[in-house]
Amino acid sequence: MITEKEAKAKIKGWMDFLVECKKVFDSEGKSLKVQKKVQKMKHEGYLVEVESPELDNTGGDWIRLNYADCYLFLHEDGRVEYQYDPYSVYGEEVIIACDYKSFIEELEKLKNARKFFEDNEEL
């Protein structure tokens, strides 16, 4: 059984991976070619999912990076949004933050991070 500390470390690791993916966009731009390059990045054996208007005709003004239950939105206006959404329900995100530091602060405040892992044994 996973501890609360282990659960938070795992979630932090997922977001850290998305931040590494973001660094590729920061250094190489957001072209379709770069999006496809990032789509090949792996963490713990799994690929990051990249969604964007250019890649899969999403209606958003953003590129969204998904890994496990963490999401990182790169908005066209330069805003970045960090989310943890273990329920995959729009509007029921557990954490929404405008910067990495705030995301980590909110993660540390979570009282039941391990509950999601108990409900989803394969993680």
What does this structure look like?
The protein is built from five helices and seven strands. The chain is an alpha+beta fold and 123 residues long. The strands form two sheets. The protein has a five-stranded antiparallel beta sheet. A two-stranded antiparallel sheet has the order 1-2. Strand 5 and strand 6 form a beta hairpin. Helix 1 runs antiparallel to helix 4 and helix 1 packs across helix 5.
Give a brief outline of the structure.
The protein has 123 residues and is of the alpha+beta class. 43% of the residues lie in helices and 22% in strands.
Percent of residues in beta strands: 15-25%
- Termini separation (Å)? 11 Å
The major pleated sheet works out as: 5 strands, antiparallel
User: How many helices does DSSP assign?
Assistant: 5
Strand order of the largest sheet: 3-4-5-6-7
